[in-house]
Amino acid sequence: MHPTSTPSNLSLPPMKDLTTENITENVHIVNSQCRDPRLRYLLNRIVSHLHDFCLETRLSTEEWNTGIQFLTEIGQISDDLRHEMILLSDTLGVSSLVDSINHPRQPPATEGTVLGPFHTHDAADMDHGSVLHSDPDATPLFVLASVKDTRGNPISDVKVDVWEGDSKGFYDVQNPNREGPDGRGVLRSDENGEFYFQAIVPVPYPIPMDGPVGKMLKALGRHPNRPGHVHFMLDKPGWDILITALYPRGDPYETSDPVFGVKESLVVDLSTVEDEEMAKKYGVKIGTKLLRHDFVLLTEQEARELRKRNAIEAMEKQGRKVVFHDGLPVPADE
């Protein structure tokens, strides 16, 4: 045991005789010794909300044990390619909420959305115009995009990580015989802020239903089908990272995404490559489906200022003044 955590070295306020009415206060007393103000604040709110949930619902021992087993199974089924905890966070709307808090956007900046459980770190670097998929049954899609700042200036050398499922609605990591990345790649925006590649028209697909999260959705009577989309992660030092996706308009699941990732600004219209000059320039066939989009990034400073302003407003609505610890908000009275 670390010498600073031995009972003889602690100066704890006296705990009260435990009851359902005061156990929350007693836990706060013990946790109040934490020297990190942000961690102390987080644990205070987690304990308060969790205890309130137990008291409000009169949670049974059987239900609590079921919850513990549920989380245990999520850990057991997860590995480097399957991220069941991310899937749980997504299907409860937490991922979307946390992203919106930590990467706030205001027009004209592109809105973010969920990372999802299928991102990997083994995608190969690709040249502009590269083909993302080896799927012969898919409908080809040419993606022509740009990256700009909020003033409309192009941003060069942005790392653009792209991934999507195949024409059957499966990602490469769901293939038990996966030998390497497919349907994913990494590009860099050029001096004009442009990047382009050949993908496929995305189709709807079910999120994995063979694990504990799938059991949860079935118990809740929820469908598992995500609308078709293409994922993008745009990253460059000095700029706030953008994790987002584009959703072709008209998908039957556009308004009922089980991971709450669809935002109206991310719903896009597909067109067709009809101009011979464009087809020749980019090496695509006339008639190929076309997705054009301009991504707009915030600088880290712009995002930091917006995040701080939002935090102050949120705390003020709670009737509390705020101070910041390592850039994160803490009530001034904590």
Automatic annotation (TrEMBL):
GO molecular function: catechol 1,2-dioxygenase activity; dioxygenase activity; ferric iron binding
Span of domain Intradiol ring-cleavage dioxygenases: 116-278
Needed cofactors: Fe(3+)
GO annotation terms (biological process): catechol-containing compound metabolic process
UniProt cross-references to InterPro entries, sorted A to Z: 1_2-HQD/HQD, Catechol_dOase_N, Intradiol_dOase_C, Intradiol_dOase_core, Intradiol_RC_Dioxygenase
Entry-linked Pfam families: Dioxygenase_C, Dioxygenase_N
The entry's keywords: Dioxygenase, Iron, Metal-binding, Oxidoreductase
Domain Catechol dioxygenase N-terminal per the UniProt entry, residue ranges: 36-107
SUPFAM superfamilies for the chain: Aromatic compound dioxygenase (SSF49482)
Family: Belongs to the intradiol ring-cleavage dioxygenase family.
This protein's name: Intradiol ring-cleavage dioxygenases domain-containing protein
Gene source species: Emericella nidulans (strain FGSC A4 / ATCC 38163 / CBS 112.46 / NRRL 194 / M139) (Aspergillus nidulans)
